[in-house]
Amino acid sequence: MLEKLIEEFKQIFHSSEAIRCFFAPGRVNLIGEHTDYNGGHVFPCSLSIGTYAVVQKRHDRKIRMYSKNFSEAGVIESSLEQLTYKTEDDWANYPKGVMDTFKKHGYDLPFGFDILFFGNIPNGAGLSSSASIELVTCVLLNKILELNIDMMDLVKMAQQAENEFIGVSCGIMDQFAIGMGKENQAVLLNCQTLEYQYSPLQLTDAVLVISNTNKRRGLADSKYNERRMECERALSDLQTSLSINSLGDLTKEQFEKHKSLIQNEVDCKRAKHAVYENERTKEAVAKLQNGDLKGFGQLMNESHCSLRDDYEVSGKELDALVEAAWLQEGVIGSRMTGAGFGGCTISIVQKAQVDRFVEKVRNTYYEKTSLEAEFYVVTVGEGARELTLEAV
């Protein structure tokens, strides 16, 4: 595939400079949803699918970008002096935001670039196509400009670009999982301290299956920021009597003892999810490390119920997919993943039952929603990096 992308790049940009290729994966969160910005733990892994970038230097200050995923938009042009958010530039705002963030950190961008992007992550599905394009841009700038920036700092800059340039108050999980991912391992991340621990994904005779509702969701347009505000209000109420920095500082027992401090009933439900999900995530990883995959799957199921009932971010499509999965033979656990309001579910399914699982869930889902779901059996891959190709 890389050879084809390079050929297409040459046709579009009439290559005269050395061409380099980069890749950043998508990510899926196995458990620990909406805990990242609440100072809790998450347990994501990077995927083998992601975003490719083929790039060459320019001799001027122009940025020319083309996406195979949005070919109808053609080549989008900007310049290093005009890195401003423009609604009409759509997807290209993400790489522009990264370049703007590099400049704000004092890094000199002495020349422009021609870049072809291609992602095999379903757009808007909740597998973090936005963070993937941010990280692939970070890595290509870092490598081509020989800046030697540490990956963790690139992760933070990508998050800053999304927060400040795009205007989405995301936590750090997506960028972290994509930048720091390791093959066949998930990573337990404390989002408050950024302490992390890799954990081998030993699924033995099972695989990860992502099911896409095909209900498009835009993170910036969803109720994501509203949920964040609700949690911040709950935290503020709790801090009137408790010395805590985040909801992630609380145990379930502490929350139950002090939840009456929270003035608003809805805010209390949101905080309950954040606290219980954080505890659930730590427990789930311990079970996985002890070889208790069934116990891990049960906690995935409980996570979905909490996201549905307390955090209210699932919706009929995600619920239909998860509930259909729960009924199938060979399903160890299933839950929504990502911000919610559409997007994807993640299921652990016994290999021998995958074909039957896909057929049964697809049919049940269509009967309930009149939508066609898509299914991806995914493997866990390496984080953002430069790709080498002998022919380049």
From TrEMBL:
First and last residue of the signal peptide:
none
- PANTHER family tied to this protein: GALACTOKINASE-RELATED (PTHR10457:SF7), MEVALONATE KINASE/GALACTOKINASE (PTHR10457)
| Catalysed reaction equations from the record | alpha-D-galactose + ATP = alpha-D-galactose 1-phosphate + ADP + H(+)
Designated name of the protein: Galactokinase
This protein's GO CC annotations: cytosol
State the EC number(s): 2.7.1.6
Query: Pathway of this protein?
Result: Carbohydrate metabolism; galactose metabolism
Please list the GO terms describing molecular function.
ATP binding; galactokinase activity; magnesium ion binding
As recorded in UniProt, coiled-coil segments are none
- Residues at which substrate binds: E33, H34, T35, D36, Y224
Family stated for the protein in its record: Belongs to the GHMP kinase family. GalK subfamily.
Query: Which residue positions are annotated as catalytic?
Result: D174 (proton acceptor)
